[in-house]
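dumping this here before i forget
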Amino acid sequence: MSSNVKETVIQFGEGGFLRGFVDYFFHKLQEKGLYDGKIVVVQPIEKGMCQMLADQNCEYNLFLRGINNGEIVNEHTHITSISRALNPYTQYEDYIALATSPDMRVLVSNTTEAGIEYLGTEKITDMPPKSYPAKLTQFLYKRFEAGLPGMILLPCELIDNNGDNLKECVLKYADLWELGQDFKNWINTENDFCSTLVDRIVTGYPRDEVEELTKQLGYTDNLIDTAEIFHLWVISGHHEDELPFNKAGYNIVWTDDVKPYKKRKVRILNGGHTSMVLGAYLYGLETVGQCLKDETVSAFLKKCLFDEIVPTLGNTETDIQFAKDVLERFSNPFIKHQLLSIALNSVSKFQVRVLPTILEYKEKFGKYPEALTFSMAALISFYRTDKANDGAEIMEFMKTASVEEIMKKEDYWHADLTDMIPMVKGYYDMIQEKGMAEAYKAVLAKN
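structure:
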C-alpha cells in the first residue's frame, strides 16, 4: 500500500455480492470526487478469495447488465476502490492494526445469513476468534483501548434487524470477556450499528461468457463479477454527510425505519416470484425469463402484482414503480433464473411472502384475491409432483394429504385458512382436471 492512500472502510467479506454492490458504490464516490478513502477487505473465514484479490492488485471488472426503462443497458466498470485484502488467519497483526487507524470510519460486512451468530466459545486472545461478531468485538475493543472514535457499521447480511442483531452479539462477547462497562458504553454511544436492506441480483463470475469477456478486456481477470443494473440499499441511519451516495446519484435510502422497505420488497419481489413460479413450472416453463415472454404467465404475474399485491400495500406511486421495476428485473435477458431453484422450500416462502397479502386483501376488500389464491392451489399441485424440494416431512404431507387437511395445517400457515378451502379446492380441481393452461384462462377471466 502506498503511503498516500487513505484507508477509511473495513469490509468483512470478499464475495461477489459486496464486490458488485458496496465496492461499486465506493468506487463511484471516489470517481466523482465525492469521497477520499479506500476499502481494506478482510476475509471472514479461513478459506476465501483474499489471495486472488491480492494477486490482481485488488482490482477487478464489474459488468452491470439489464433493462432500464425498456432499454438494454450494459455497463462495464474497472473497480479500484479496494487498497488491499487481508486474511486474519495468516496476517493477524496487519489486520488488528487496522483498529488503531484514526482514518478508519466505516465497517461493512456480508458474512452470509449464518455469519451473525454468538458462539460464546471463543477467547479475546484468539488470533483470530472464529465467529464474525467475536472478531468484530476484538477489533472494536482494540479501537476503544486506543482512545479512538467509533464506527459506522453497515451489515448487509440478509436477516431482519441485522444491525441490532450484530450489536447484541458484540455486547454478549463484551460480557463473556469481561471487557467492562466503559467499553459497553462506548459501543452504545460511539458506534452506529445501522440495520440495512440490500437489493440487487448479483450473478457473480460469468462462467458461460468468460471467454468472450476476456477477449473484450484483452487480459485474464479471475474475479470478473456480473450483476443487474437495479440496486437499492436502505440504511437505518443518517450519514449522507460522510457517505454522499445520494449526491452521487445512487438509490440509497437513509431512514429511521427499514421495515416498510423490507415489507415492499418481500411482498412484491419475493411474493411475485413465489406466486408465479410453481404454476409456471406446471405450465411447462423453466426460467423466469420465459415466464415474462409468455403472454399467459406474464398476464398472471401482472394480475398478482398490480391488482392484488400493490393495492394491499396502499397503491402508492412508489409501490407501483417498484412493481414495474420488478417486471423489468424479471425479464433481464442476462439472468437465467431457474424456476426450480426459486421453488426450494416453497411452503415456508409462501407463508412469509404471499399469505400475508392474501389475508390483508380479504380484510381490506372483503374477498380473497383470485390470482394469489389460485397460486395456493398451484402450490398444492406442484407438491404432488416429484419436483418439490423441501423438508422430508413437509413433502410427504403435502403429497398425500387432502386439500382440506393441507389448508387446516396451522403450523405451516400460522393462520386459520378454513374460509379459503372452497376457493382453493375449486382451482386445485380445475388444474387437475383441465390442466394449467385452462386454469390460467379461468383465473385471468375473473375481475
